[in-house]
Amino acid sequence: MKIYIEKDYNALSKKAADIITDFVKKNSKCVLGLATGSTPQKTYDLLGKMYKTKKVSFKNIKTFNLDEYSGLATNNPQSYHYFMKQNFFDKTDVNIKNTFFPTDFAPNYKKYDKKIKDEGEIDLQILGIGSNGHIGFNEPNSNFFSKTRQVKLSKNTIKDNARFFKNKKDVPIKAVTMGINTIMRAKKIILLANGSNKKEAVFNALCKKVSTKTPASILQNHKDVIVILDKESAEKFTRLNNFAKSKIKI
Ligand code: F6R
User: Which CATH entry fits the domain spanning 2-128+182-245: 3.90.1170.20, 3.40.190.10, 3.40.50.1360, 3.40.120.10?
Assistant: First the structure.
């Protein structure tokens, strides 16, 4: 595991965008796993700018999104389909035919895992982390062997997601997410976190024993993970100086 602690959100986003761009330049036909949410938003913005200035092309990539809310139309501005279109697909030369979301495979979500497998697995997976340590929408106590499936969102996640919705009653309570096993099969993973509301989750994921209580802790067992944090999200991790105690090589 490689861990970068950047000074702020902009620096974190630049680091992530540079790594992704380099990767796509070297692997123009790669399969990317994509996260949504506020964390990767600036990274996508920078990728769009790199495309515009001809530094990279996404023409031949395929993309698989981590998750999508259940029950939202794809043109609903809060849907992850919409998010990806606005933040990445419409700003680059990604071929929309090569972009996939788990809800598109309803109700047979096994087909999503099969499709990922048939494409040779995800080459580079981008992840955020929930304040409760979730990855995708694999909430605490999710099975580490889980595959793509429909899940109920935890109270904590519904509360966190409420900031994107005008009315509380509109916040989805279910979603379809890649499973933890689906994510762990990715060949390379980038985990991004920013803001002090993530410091507990980051600490639990990186420094505590691997446990289903913090789904992101399973990443300690993956052979190729890059973690990019800003100072705020890394605060507890740095302050307690648990580097030596953890099994992580920085
Ligand atoms: C989104 C996803 C979630 C988010 C996490 C953090 O596709 O899979 O796990 O990455 O909830 O969300 P933000 O970035 O909004 O804090």
Answer: 3.40.50.1360
Active site residue 22: no
Spatial distance between the Cα atoms of 202 and 196, rounded to a whole number of angstroms:
10
**CB distance 214 to ligand 1 below 6 Å:** no
Beta-bridge partners for 37: none
Q: Which of 65, 87, 132, 204 is catalytic?
A: 132
Average confidence (pLDDT) per 10 residues, the chain, 250 residues: 96 98 98 98 98 98 98 96 98 98 97 98 98 98 98 96 92 97 98 98 96 98 97 89 51
Give me the residue spans of the domains in the chain: 2-128+182-245
Phi then psi for residue 108, to 5 deg, are -100, 80
Give the count of beta carbons closer than 10 Å to the beta carbon of residue 216. 27
